[in-house]
Structure formats: structure tokens, C-alpha cells
């Protein structure tokens, strides 16, 4: 009915998911360490060939970010589905769109933001210039919310299915491809001394589109699962 | 909620068209009680109330939990509680919710005799205040208040 109650609902969901994530810190750290280790394996495997490392860096970091986000996505709705909380959320007076947005926002804060923050540090292993590290940070900052938003559709669709983890990867990874192309593209452009702006703007456009449509698609998927 | 046939109406209007207004007047506690194991009963109660649009203070939550016999255990994570205690902490929401229609599924499951009597009297108070409760249960429900109707669903 009124804006305050809608807002407070959003706040409750985010606060709740953050508290839960804090109580289950191990899960969150696992995602972060997965990212760090996967990215670090490449310089170790390839050896100190700076030219080669520099040229594969954008792709490697971005692919690792995609895979790391797959790890945490399964949990977005699964726990709430099992103990009946999701049912309660569907029955709330507020639009489901907001519930989904709140949960996705919390998931992004908990699982993706640490990864975005640590990425510039990891980029140093690939001998990237400070300017490029900044672009890497910005591209991940714009790109990771898209991963969470698109991923939430997959998480909702595979809810309650056996082997949902693999299925979610098959459903969602193809949809991540544009994000990967433009995210890694921005960093590559910066390495080659060109302006990364075009790539970043396209990434931002993707963010806006997925911000509008993904929670809506996720809500629809949740309704189908729970009816 | 879609019925197999027919239509569900709330105060004369189909619930499909009411949507928000309808969900504002319903409290549903189902078989899966939506109690998070990592959170304490106090947090569980405050959060589930906040999510359904009735924010309550810590004192209000404590009072409700105390009435259900969880005084002194409010801050214990729910995974340390017994099944009955967990169900009681979920049912504490009935005391704080302010809704007219209660939909309760197997409300007496895992509750001991004292707790069952307590829940029956809470439902009774709700009926006396003009509320409605639809309860699905396998146990005998002793309600003395209000008008009480029993539907036996065979097989």
C-alpha cells in the first residue's frame, strides 16, 4: 500500500540474508577462495611469460568470476525453499519482485562484492598496469550484479530439482556469455591502450535491462515452482 | 493458491483480484515452519513478522515467546531447540500478527499436552476477537470459544 512498508520489507530481507550469510561464513569464504585459487593457478601453470599472462588475464579473471558466482547461486533460494520461508515470502503483501530483488542484492553483496574488491590485487599476478586494474575493477563492479540477476532466474527454475547444481550451470552459463565478452573486452581494450568506454557502457546497459526483467522472470519461476 | 475447481473469495471478492489486500489479512503457518536454524527464536520471530509487514519490537517478541514457554531461550540459535520448541517459536507469530484469517496446517504436531492446550486457547482468543481460523489437523482440537465447525475429510 505505502512506500515505507515496501521499503522496510526490502530492508528486512537484505538484513536477514546478511545475518544468515554471517552465520554461515564458511560458504561465503569458499566462493572467494575458489575465485582466488582458480585465477592464481594460471600464472603458476604458465610461468613468468608476462606478455602471454597479460593477454589472457581479462578472460581468466572473468571466467573465474562466472564460475565462482555459479557456486553461490544454488543457495539463493534453496535453503528458504526447504524450510518453508519462501512460501511465507510468496504470501507477503509486498510484490514478489521486491523479495527477489532484495535476495539478489544480498547475494551480490555477500558473494560478489568481496570478489570484485580482491580482483585488482589478483590482477597484479598478471602484470597488469594500474589503469587496467582499475578498469578490471569497474567492469566487475558493473558486471557481477548482472551475473547475480541472471543467475537468480536459473536458481529459481531449478529449485527442488535433483542435480540442480549442474542444470543451473547449463541454463545460466550461456546467458553469461554477453557479460563475459563485454567485461573481458573492456579490460582487453585497456591493455591494448584503447578506450574501454564502449564495452563498459554496453555492460551498464545489460545491467539496466537485467535489473528490470530478471527479478520479474525469477518471480514467475518461483510462482511456478511453489504452486 | 489455485483451487482445483471453483473460486476462493475473501469478503465477497475473489482472492485473485484482491492479491495484496488478501495477503495482508492472512497468516499462514504450514507444515514447513520457516524457522531458520542459524537464527535465534527472537530473530526468527522478528524477521518473519517484519517480512509480513508487521514490525515488532524486541520486547513484544520476547513477550510472545515467553507466553509460548520459550523465555530464557530466545537468544539460542534454533538448531539447539527441540522440534516442539522450534514449532512453538514459529507459532509465536500468531500472537504478534494482527491478521484476521489464520491458516494453520498440522498446528499441534510435535507439541506436548500443555503446549497444545496453550495453542488451543490462543486460537480461542483469536475467535473471540472476531477472527477466523482454518485449521487442518490430525489431532483432536478442543476449541470452546466462538462458533466452531468441524469438517471430517475421510481418505
Give a brief description.
The complex is a heterodimer of chains A (227) and B (155). Chain A has 227 residues and is mainly α. Chain A has helices at 3-23, 25-46, 50-73, 75-82, 85-90, 96-123, 130-157, 164-191, 197-226.
SSE run of chain A: HHHHHHHHH
As a percent range, the share of strand residues of chain A is under 5%
- H/E topology pattern of chain B: EEHHEHHHHEHE
CATH architecture label name of chain B: 3-Layer(aba) Sandwich
Principal-axes geometry of chain A comes out as elongated
Amino-to-carboxy terminus distance of chain B? 22 Å
Number of distinct helices of chain B:
7
Structural class of chain B: alpha/beta
Give the fraction of residues assigned to helices of chain B: 25-40%
- Structural class determined from secondary elements of chain A: mainly alpha
- Count of individual domains of chain B: 1
> What is the gyration radius of chain B calculated from CA atoms?
16 Å
Major β-sheet strand ordering of chain B: 3-4-5
User: How many separate domains of chain A?
Assistant: 1
CATH C-level class of chain B: Alpha Beta
Average pLDDT over all residues of chain B: 86
Which spans of chain A have pLDDT < 50 for at least 5 consecutive residues? none
Question: What characterizes the major β-sheet of chain A?
Answer: none
Structure characterization notes:
The complex is a heterodimer of chains A (227) and B (155). With 227 residues, chain A is an all-alpha fold. Chain A has nine helices and no strands. Chain A has helices at residues 3-23, 25-46, 50-73, 75-82, 85-90, 96-123, 130-157, 164-191, 197-226. Chain A starts with a helix and ends with a helix. Chain B has 155 residues and is of the alpha/beta class. Chain B is built from seven helices and five strands; from the N terminus they run ββααβααααβαβ. Chain B has helices spanning 15-18, 20-24, 41-51, 58-67, 83-91, 93-96, 113-128; strands spanning 9-10, 13-14, 26-29, 101-105, 132-136. A three-stranded parallel beta sheet of chain B has the order 3-4-5. Chain B has a two-stranded antiparallel ribbon with strand order 1-2. In chain B, helix 3 crosses helix 4 (58-67). Chains A and B meet through helix 1 and helix 5 of A and helix 2 and helix 3 of B.
Amino acid at each position: 500500500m505505502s512506500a515505507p512498508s515496501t521499503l522496510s520489507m526490502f530492508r528486512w530481507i537484505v538484513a536477514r540474508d546478511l545475518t544468515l550469510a554471517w552465520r554461515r561464513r564458511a560458504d561465503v569464504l569458499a566462493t572467494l577462495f575458489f575465485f582466488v585459487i582458480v585465477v592464481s593457478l594460471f600464472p603458476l601453470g604458465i610461468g613468468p611469460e608476462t606478455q602471454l599472462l597479460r593477454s589472457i588475464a581479462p578472460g581468466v579473471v572473468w571466467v573465474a568470476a562466472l564460475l565462482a558466482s555459479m557456486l553461490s547461486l544454488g543457495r539463493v533460494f534453496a535453503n528458504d525453499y526447504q524450510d518453508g520461508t519462501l512460501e511465507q515470502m510468496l504470501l507477503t503483501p509486498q510484490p514478489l519482485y521486491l523479495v527477489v530483488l532484495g535476495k539478489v542484492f544480498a547475494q551480490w553483496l555477500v558473494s560478489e562484492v568481496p570478489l570484485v574488491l580482491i580482483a585488482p590485487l589478483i590482477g597484479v599476478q598478471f602484470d597488469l598496469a594500474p589503469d587496467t586494474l582499475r578498469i578490471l575493477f569497474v567492469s566487475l563492479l558493473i558486471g557481477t550484479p548482472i551475473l547475480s540477476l541472471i543467475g537468480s532466474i536459473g536458481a529459481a527454475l531449478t529449485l527442488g530439482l535433483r542435480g540442480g547444481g549442474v542444470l543451473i550451470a547449463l541454463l545460466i552459463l550461456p546467458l553469461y556469455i554477453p557479460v563475459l565478452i563485454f567485461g573481458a573486452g573492456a579490460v582487453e581494450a585497456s591493455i591494448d591502450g584503447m578506450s574501454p568506454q564502449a564495452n563498459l557502457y554496453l555492460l551498464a546497459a545489460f545491467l539496466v535491462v537485467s535489473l528490470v526483467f530478471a527479478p520479474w522472470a525469477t518471480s514467475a519461476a518461483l510462482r511456478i515452482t511453489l504452486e | 493458491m489455485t483451487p482445483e475447481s471453483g473460486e476462493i473469495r475473501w469478503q465477497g471478492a475473489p482472492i485473485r483480484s484482491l492479491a495484496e489486500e488478501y495477503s495482508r489479512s492472512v497468516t499462514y503457518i504450514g507444515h514447513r515452519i520457516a524457522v531458520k536454524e542459524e537464527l535465534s527464536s527472537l530473530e526468527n520471530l522478528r524477521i518473519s513478522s517484519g517480512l509480513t509487514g508487521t514490525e515488532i519490537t524486541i520486547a513484544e517478541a520476547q513477550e510472545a515467546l515467553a507466553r509460548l514457554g520459550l523465555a530464557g531461550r530466545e537468544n539460542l540459535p534454533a538448531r539447539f531447540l527441540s522440534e516442539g520448541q522450534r514449532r512453538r517459536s514459529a507459532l509465536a507469530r500468531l500472537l504478534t500478527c494482527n491478521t484476521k484469517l489464520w491458516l494453520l496446517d498440522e498446528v499441534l504436531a510435535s507439541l506436548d499436552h500443555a503446549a497444545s492446550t496453550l495453542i488451543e486457547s490462543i486460537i480461542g482468543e483469536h475467535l473471540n476477537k472476531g477472527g477466523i481460523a482454518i485449521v487442518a489437523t490430525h489431532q483432536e482440537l478442543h476449541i470452546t470459544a466462538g462458533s466452531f465447525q468441524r469438517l471430517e475429510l475421510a481418505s
